[in-house]
Amino acid sequence: MSSTASGKNGTWRNWGGNVSARPARQVAPASVEELAAAVRRAREDGLKVKAVGTGHSFTSIAATDGVLIRPHLLTGIRTIDRAAMTVTAEAGTPLKRLNAALAREGLSLTNMGDIMEQTVSGATSTGTHGTGRASASIAAQIKGLELVTADGSVLTCSEKENPEVFAAARIGLGALGVVTAITFAVEPLFLLTAREEPMPFERVLAEFDQLWAENEHFEFYWFPHTGNTNTKRNNRSAGPEQPVGRLAGWFEDEFLSNGVFQVAQWVGRAAPATVPAIARVSSRALSARTYTDIPYKVFTSPRRVRFVEMEYAVPRAALVPALRELKAMVDRSGLRIGFPVEVRTAPADDITLSTASGRDSAYIAVHMFRGAPYQAYFTAAERIFTAHEGRPHWGKVHTRDAGYFSRVYPRFGEFTALRDRLDPDQLFQNNYLRRVLGA
Ligand SMILES: Cc1cc2nc3c(=O)[nH]c(=O)nc-3n(C[C@H](O)[C@H](O)[C@H](O)COP(=O)(O)OP(=O)(O)OC[C@H]3O[C@@H](n4cnc5c(N)ncnc54)[C@H](O)[C@@H]3O)c2cc1C
């Protein structure tokens, strides 16, 4: 995947192309000391501070007109502790580098999202997740964190050390300090068998509880304007390894899922009336397949077609009614939606502002091709999700504010009180945080 946020003419832009900012200055510290000095200097100069990952968030959560801290010199594995089964990575390490390094050591994370371009700190700061029956987001796999706080000092936290910081800072929204290193729980490298299979929408909904209960990782994509889905079931396997063949992999993952899909999106954007027909063809293009490989090769795949996304977590029990309402809304509207809707799950976790905090959750993600008008679709979808007390992904488009979050997150006040203690002058503030956390 071509990279992310660009810095042309001093302008920073996110991957989706829907957010840009002009920071007063940009720095790329190569050590924790350099980073702490950059934070202190910004403070002396009266500038706000924002650390950024690879700009894969669709919200303005990473935007700043102050000092932008770039991640690329703070990368790599610091330590591997085989007794504790943990690995500590520098905050700017891309997930793909972490995954490859772990695999070389015979280790793996337990669960991950759809892609691995993001940095470890950027991904965890917004609660990036995959799908899981018992295994939760990437942040839920964190065992310890090191961060530079607003006064330029270094703070470490874990379940035992500063536990109130640990509870919140694993998904810290960039509001509590600049993360400099993350310690993850790891396990011995294992194999996953993926079963991808088209299935009618009505059947997936009727059998959803069973599909979820019978699989360690269940997800599906529904194609609006059709009654078709593609399902994916990933389960641990004793082997043998049976990776997708190179030619078949290229054909399905590159040619169909990226190349042909890109062309279909161009056509649909230029002539929206063709979208339902394209959706019917797209939804039938991929055939059933089964393969067995190491985790990151099963969980993640390249996403080259650029899009804008909104994703909400609803209580898992609300998934089926919420999806029925979404389908009914699309069917009766004049909307033309060329991108599939992705559905995943997560078990309840104990992180203060995790979208799955304290409740078993299902995620519904709606997407639009970059450059196609998305507001009407996202507004209508958001109305459905919020009626089910949905919690939006912190890094994906939404319009919610602090008043709403204080209602759907029982521990919201705990997070803002901690932010006020660690960052009383709001050095890490930006417009997004002002909206979602309140002044
Ligand atoms: C193609 C694509 C696929 C995606 N797939 C998934 C998916 O499967 N599951 C999912 O949940 N999400 C997914 N996302 C969303 C994405 O994972 C999140 O938005 C993630 O936060 C992006 O990470 P990043 O490294 O680009 O961080 P950025 O977007 O650059 O920053 C995100 C936040 O992290 C903060 N941050 C970054 N570094 C630090 C640091 N060192 N200290 C403190 N704060 C920091 C920033 O200030 C900002 O608040 C996807 C996005 C795209 C574009």
From TrEMBL:
Residues 19-189 form the FAD-binding PCMH-type domain. GO terms for cellular component: membrane. Keywords: Ascorbate biosynthesis, Oxidoreductase. InterPro entries: ALO_C, FAD-bd_PCMH, FAD-bd_PCMH-like_sf, FAD-bd_PCMH_sub1, FAD-bd_PCMH_sub2, FAD_lactone_oxidase-like, Oxid_FAD_bind_N, Oxy_OxRdtase_FAD_BS. It holds the Pfam family ALO. Residues 1-12 have a biased composition (Polar residues). One of its GO terms (molecular function) is FAD binding. Residues 1-26 are annotated as: Disordered. One of its GO terms (biological process) is L-ascorbic acid biosynthetic process. This is FAD-linked oxidoreductase. It comes from Streptomyces capoamus.
